[in-house]
Design a protein that fits this description.
Blueprint: H1 3-9, H2 12-56, H3 63-87
Length: 107
């Protein structure tokens, strides 16, 4: 009697639970590197925006441009707060690189 024959002899609930658990495990194994790549890309974008905003503060810009910069700052600060929140959760912290905790909000 092979392992596959023993599996199909188990009760239906055990079979379904095993299959669902296997699908979830495979999803996590596939999602983890993809999540790290996407968030690493967003981290690079955050650094570029932060540098651009720091450089634009020294320039004489109009109120409209200043308002656009403030909207950008709000957007990226909200993104950073979300990433720091999820990084501190037990399960979801695996999907977010720890580098986000070292960043400070753009002022």
């Amino acid at each position: 009697m092979s392992i596959s024959d023993r599996f199909w002899d188990l009760p239906m609930g055990v079979q379904l639970s095993s299959i669902i658990l296997l699908i979830m495990l495979l999803g996590c194994l596939i999602g983890l590197p993809i999540s790290h790549l996407c968030i690493s890309s967003q981290i690079a974008q955050y650094k570029a925006v932060e540098l651009t905003i720091e450089q634009s503060r020294n320039l004489d810009i109009s109120d409209l441009e200043r308002a656009a910069i403030q909207q950008t700052v709000c957007k990226w600060n909200a993104w950073l707060a979300g990433m720091q929140y999820w990084n501190n959760k037990i399960f979801f912290g695996w999907f977010v690189p720890d580098a986000v905790n070292s960043f400070e909000f753009i002022k």
